[in-house]
Amino acid sequence: MSDEAGPAQAPEASVLEPCRLQALADELGDPTPAIRFLSTYLSMLPGRILRISNGLCRHDPDASMDAVLSLKISSAMVGALETENQCQAIETMIREDHFDSAVQALPELKKSTDRCFAAGPQLLGRAQSTLCKGPQVWPNG
Q: Could you give all domains of the chain from N- to C-terminal order, each with its CATH number?
């Protein structure tokens, strides 16, 4: 049987690619910093979107690029592939001085980060139980 995305899949399941977070934990030699990084990533999403939005609306290439690269790199590290890809597209628009297009792409990026943020508790619980490989059961609540 296949575990591919389907109608019965939990909403948070498609938000992150777990292999990326596992690779980070393996590279660090300990799952704790990887889980802490994921927690920090999730908590900073609203502020990062605001920074990107402010930079784009001001047509400030330096502020926009700094904010979008920060989100792109951290998204890649935790496995938020959709967010990473959207940041890559906006990065290209900024490099080509297409700020109006980048502003128009911002709502889709916000939807992606909103999904990650909303799924945060479930993502952290799953990361904790998967990366730590302990017998812990995380309550819904």
A: 16-131 (1.20.120)
